[in-house]
Amino acid sequence: xxxxxxxxxxxxxxxxxxxxxxxxxLIHATINFFSVIDSMTGKFGVAAADEKxxxxxxxxxxxxxxxxxxxxxxxxxxxxxxxxxxHIVYGGWLTWQNMKARGGLKRYEVPSKAKSDxxxxxxxxxxxxxxxxxxxxxxxxxxxxxxxxEMFGVGTYENNxxxxxxxxxxxxxxxxxxxxxFVAIWLHMTHGFWSMxxxxxxxxxxxxxxxxxxxxxxxxxxxxxxxxxxxxAFIQARILL
Length: 241
Known about the structure:
Distance between the termini: 57 Å
Number of domains: 1
Structural class: mainly alpha
Strand content: under 5%
Number of strands: 0
Helix content: over 70%
């Protein structure tokens, strides 16, 4: 089929899977940022001290985590995993094809505005490797302690997401690694966002400039929310633990 056998088709699949992941990151960042709001309202400390989280002190972050544990989200987990796999596999395949076509590490087989536009555009593979590597690090901290025990009965379930945030980000070196990860995601996303629209034909001079601005805004909001959440958890750990 054209969509699987052509360079444009593969880039289209890469773009659609990337859009799906950006949507997930937006939802995930919003729920995580609820913990920052809870710290401002005083509910963070109350909920963190509640072993079973059944008190009136439960905050927005706890409600967000409850939402992430619903049946609908549980069904979406394998879909999300498939989206990651598709995005990674096609990203690697596109890079390999471009390497063969160009005889070196080049992202694009044909001339493109994106080719010389930014550092991120020419280093998406490196950024992807950093994002993927630290994703595994992230899964051991949260998914392995919340969703994995709940869904498959493997490991010890951590019922208090506030405490888990503080224990994880309370270590300065862990916080630093996560901040590096967020920067890599920002760079990867800023290029990938407008490149996604360019792939489907929105590559006129006017819209190209607008999409770059929108990409920077969306990426900054998402990665900024993640970074503020991590820094706030580090501060809360110093206060409460």
